[in-house]
């Protein structure tokens, strides 16, 4: 349902050959659990997680800042949206001060399998698939960092949306659309901006025809935009 | 020389067991080349690169922005500093519009080995080390994205410096210091800010005792800061 579009994402979407066997194994061993929208997925460092169904949202929290002595910073640490993990994709959460990573179910009925790395000894080929998936995710994050280095917020916003929709978008009448909603506050938290600013700049991008929205606030890129951004 | 500090970075710094054999193989097959400071390292997608000596700087260029029709954007695309690749570490550059990634030697006499992925068929254990290294780099980039989601530039700056020095810093009298210089323009390009702003905010952080500089403009974190940021 929320699968990665094969056309745009050939590396990450190649079939996990032993996927069904993993799912069977996980059910036999009670290593699978379902979560409702925005429910926190408990994780431990050193474990490997696989999204069986739905989508996971990764979030980072900074515990270091230049004004951390103030009460404000202690009450509301800033949470940053770090991206999705789609169906069939692995993720791991390594605890690391001064930043912490967390995972949430982004949609209802998100189902997650967990295992120890050594459980993969049974499936050496699958282990390699998982490591290749992390390699791919790493490359995507480098592109993401490229856009966050841009000075103007509107450029970071457009770059961010382009990367996200390029990876997770599905073809519709409106172009390529994200299959799940993302709030303006979440977008702001990813690009170092605020909900208010994101709302304003989204309006600008919509006016210029650079983005669209579909139905229940789903974000879209016009098809020609996806095809031609490389030549811009 | 520019090795990763084992104490702070146990996963990435575990010895590459077959490292010497790889170096020998690379020299025999003319797969190693030396670069001077800031020289561009030519790369092709699908190839794997290993830093034998020195340090590599990854840079991303955005080719999409909300005002790309203007002449200004065409003349000076924004380059973002995306991090270092230290001695013994692998990197790869996957071409991907609307962003391009590039690599430069960050210090003189940086030496880089290149190979095809299938060359690693000879060293299956080493292949796994490389994939684990990418897995580690991916986790670091998630932490990096966490700090770039912070709204205030000074928080992004401090978070960025903390992560960088935590990973690459070496113990000195001034605390943990980066072993190579990084310009304020490069720092600004990483955190979505300008050279001028970085210079101003670095002054503030220095006044507060949150960062230091050593000798020839090397960036340092006071030792107690590294140890206590998690409790801030």
From TrEMBL, chains A, B:
<protein>
    <submittedName>
        <fullName>Crp/Fnr family transcriptional regulator</fullName>
    </submittedName>
</protein>
<dbReference type="InterPro" id="IPR036390">
    <property type="entry name" value="WH_DNA-bd_sf"/>
</dbReference>
<dbReference type="InterPro" id="IPR036388">
    <property type="entry name" value="WH-like_DNA-bd_sf"/>
</dbReference>
<feature type="domain" description="HTH crp-type">
    <location>
        <begin position="151"/>
        <end position="224"/>
    </location>
</feature>
<dbReference type="Pfam" id="PF13545">
    <property type="entry name" value="HTH_Crp_2"/>
</dbReference>
<dbReference type="InterPro" id="IPR012318">
    <property type="entry name" value="HTH_CRP"/>
</dbReference>
<dbReference type="GO" id="GO:0003700">
    <property type="term" value="F:DNA-binding transcription factor activity"/>
</dbReference>
<dbReference type="InterPro" id="IPR018335">
    <property type="entry name" value="Tscrpt_reg_HTH_Crp-type_CS"/>
</dbReference>
<dbReference type="GO" id="GO:0003677">
    <property type="term" value="F:DNA binding"/>
</dbReference>
């Amino acid at each position: 349902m929320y699968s990665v579009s094969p056309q745009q994402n050939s590396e990450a979407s190649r079939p996990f050959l032993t996927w069904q066997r993993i799912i069977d194994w996980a059910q036999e061993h009670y290593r699978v659990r379902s979560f409702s929208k925005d429910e926190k997925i408990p994780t431990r460092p050193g474990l490997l997680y696989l999204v069986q169904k739905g989508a996971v949202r990764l979030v980072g929290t900074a515990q270091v800042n230049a004004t951390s002595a103030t009460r404000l910073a202690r009450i509301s640490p800033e949470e940053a949206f770090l991206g999705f993990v789609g169906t069939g994709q692995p993720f791991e959460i390594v605890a690391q001060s001064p930043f912490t990573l967390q995972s949430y179910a982004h949609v209802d009925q998100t189902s997650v399998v967990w295992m120890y790395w050594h459980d993969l000894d049974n499936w050496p080929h699958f282990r390699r698939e998982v490591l290749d998936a992390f390699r791919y995710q790493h490359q995507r994050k480098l592109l993401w960092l490229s856009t966050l280095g841009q000075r103007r917020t509107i450029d970071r916003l457009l770059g961010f949306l382009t990367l996200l929709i390029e990876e997770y978008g599905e073809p519709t009448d409106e172009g390529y659309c994200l299959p799940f909603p993302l709030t303006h506050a979440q977008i702001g938290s990813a690009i170092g901006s605020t909900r208010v600013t994101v709302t304003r700049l989204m309006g600008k991008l919509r006016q210029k025809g650079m983005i669209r929205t579909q139905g229940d606030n789903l974000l879209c890129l016009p098809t020609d935009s996806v095809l031609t951004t490389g030549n811009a």
